[in-house]
Amino acid sequence: MAALLALPAAAIPKKRPVYTDPSAPIEQRVEDALSRMTLEEKVAIIHAQSKFSSAGVPRLGIPELWTTDGPHGIRPEVLWDEWDQAGWTNDSCVAFPALTCLAASWDPEMALMYGTAIGEEARYRGKDVLLGPGVNIYRTPLNGRNFEYMGEDPYLASKMVVPYVQALQNNGVAACVKHYALNNNEVNRHTTNVILDDRALYEIYLPAFKAAVQEGGAWSIMAAYNLYGDEHLCHNKRMLNDILKGEWGFDGAVISDWGGVHDTPQAIANGMDLEFGSWTNGLSAGTRNAYDNYFLAKPYLDLIRSGKVGTDELDDKARRVLRLIFRTAMDSKYGYGSLCSDEHYAIARRIGDEGIVLLKNDKATLPVDVAKAKKILVVGENAIKMMTVGGGSSSLKVQHEISPLDGLRAAVPADVTVDFERGYVGDVTGEYNGVTTGQNLADSRSPEQLIADAVAKAADADFVIFFGGLNKSAGQDCEDADRAGLELPYGQDAVIEALAAANPNFAVVNISGNAVAMPWVKKVPAIVQAWFLGSEAGNSIADVLLGAVNPSGKLPMTFPVALADNGAHATGSYPGVKRADSHIVDLEYKEGILVGYRWHDTKKVKPLFAFGHGLSYTDFAYGKATADATEMAADGTITITVPVTNTGAREGEEVVQLYISDPKCTVMRPAKELKGFAKLKLKPGETREAKFTVKADDLSYFDADKHEWVAEPGQFIASVGAASDDIKSTLKFNLK
Ligand code: GLC
């Protein structure tokens, strides 16, 4: 006390410095703070100080920055220096559906709700940067992390990522859109050097990131592990300086994937702003977590002190990190969020309800009519296995997770029984980085016995539902590895065939983030794609299977019949070729722009289920598409309208899709490309119009030679439909 009294009056600050004033313009705050920082303080804030945090400036009262995984929910606390659990008891969260489910809803309103809810959870947990969402394009169905992303089409991913970013950041939590870019498989993710032409880069792999930056206003971007042009994405001149910061005007911070930085001079010059990692030289054990040895730490400081490099790049990095801090940690206007609220669970359930896709439903097998079906048999490990633990960095410690079996049991009337048979044993582990499921999934029965036991009960059940698919273990839907093939693992096909033979009232629910082969597709009357739905999984699944909710999801990726039907595999491109006497694997995207349905339509390869496919418990009739003009000026627009009627007996939602074709063009173009969609809710008998305003941008391709988007005058075809392989109406128009 005495010391304070001794201070001369002038020393007690009267006016708070500008950088501490949240109402001051952010650029003023940045410059004011920067001008007060020492060289050491600037270097300190551009690299990690712990597993998930970077330093602030204690002397100036600038707080440290806290990041958290992941795109589906807020990761539990880990120890300062470890991946393992800190063992807190207040860090359980809500697991929201995987982003493939969000994309499958084809409803930007869902993305807005998603970003709001997950932003409130992050804010409440004191996190400044959410390490997500991921928007890497679904190029191969083997990619272990497709479940974290938004499908195969750049237009759909762009429309769905923007509201998520806006709503998340509206909580004062930065999005960190990942993994920028070309991280489209997990095998060799640190050493794959992607080779592709600029048309594929600009038309397929960049648009969702560009939309997140330019429309979503993303405050940070995570640079990926892989290489492009022989430079790691974490310090890639073209991708970070020329395109992201140059062409797109990104003013946020580029954050490295963990251990993605490998070179100090490149990291200085090529746009890396905030280095995170696992150990000193990235991922190896190195000098355990000596953060001062990070590439942008002491090695950088030494180069500056020795006069070998200047401080211009350092100031730019520090400005971007300060901007990130002022937009998040140092802006109290956003309130304090909320955690595990009823609203968040309701949002998780709603997104699950909207994203589940009804793939097949012969003879109106679904919904299960519980007035007749009094004995339901549920078969399959995925009816009981927790899916919120595992999968890699998106793994969570949830407050609860409703399994499909539990969801069904809770939803059926009292006079209906729901029995269970394992059917198959897949993955019995239940732990990831110290988070355990608490389930004991051990079962000593042989596969034959498991099937026999299930078939015995199936014979006298009124309805049989099989829950299978993939899970979050390595080699399934999981980070840092890819699947070995398209087939369902663990002998599930045999179980499905046996059950189909035992009872015609049968439905298969596939829980996965990836397409799977379905050799039994003709023998199963009803098939549902149910994604990884998080905490409310069982409730959403019961909502749809029992008919409380009319399914309205549409596939955000193609389900090929066989792997060779997919462009990345038909061309022999995947998984790439290891370079002689180098650890680098060259992976050329030989299919170019023909990714997903672009490949199937153009090469006329019939898919098992098409991009945009999804059925309903009601029926929709499409009227004729009309346009407000037959000709469009280069700077003009054309509006295409199509009436849709609910001709069935119950309310439903239909995702009306608009595809554009450019039949005569000087360059090769896909048969058609998604350029619009609208989700219409229709009561029985109701007719509403889907309206699409098409502008020249929607008609253009990327001209690599001119390095600009070009829409060639001439005839275009607009196709309106319920799926990429279910076009209801087309019309022609001319671009002048
Ligand atoms: C992981 C993932 C990235 C994650 C980060 C932190 O390697 O690639 O998505 O956010 O490291 O866990």
How does the helix and strand content classify structurally? alpha/beta
Task: Give me the CATH fold name of the largest domain.
Answer: TIM Barrel
The CATH class label of the largest domain is: Alpha Beta
Average pLDDT level = 96
If you compute it from the alpha carbons, what radius of gyration comes out, rounded to the nearest whole angstrom? 26 Å
CATH architecture of the largest domain: Alpha-Beta Barrel
The spatial strand order of the largest sheet comes to 1-2-3-4-6-9
Unreliable spans: none
Bound molecules: alpha-D-glucopyranose
Short description:
This protein is of the alpha/beta class and 736 residues long. Helix content is 26%, strand content 20%. The protein has three domains: 2-327, TIM Barrel, CATH 3.20.20.300; 354-554, Glycoside hydrolase family 3 C-terminal domain (Rossmann fold); 618-736, Immunoglobulin-like (Sandwich), CATH 2.60.40.
Which structural traits does this protein have?
3 domains; TIM Barrel; 736 residues; binds alpha-D-glucopyranose; six-stranded mixed sheet; alpha/beta; Rossmann fold; Immunoglobulin-like
Q: What would you say this structure looks like, in words?
A:
With 736 residues, this protein is an alpha/beta fold. Helices cover 26% and strands 20% of the residues. It has three domains: 2-327, Glycoside hydrolase, family 3, N-terminal domain (TIM Barrel), CATH 3.20.20; 354-554, Rossmann fold (3-Layer(aba) Sandwich), CATH 3.40.50; 618-736, Sandwich (Immunoglobulin-like), CATH 2.60.40. Strands 1-2-3-4-6-9 form a six-stranded mixed β-sheet. Helix 2 packs across helix 12 (312-327). The longest helix has 17 residues, at 108-124. The site of alpha-D-glucopyranose has 6 residues, from loops.
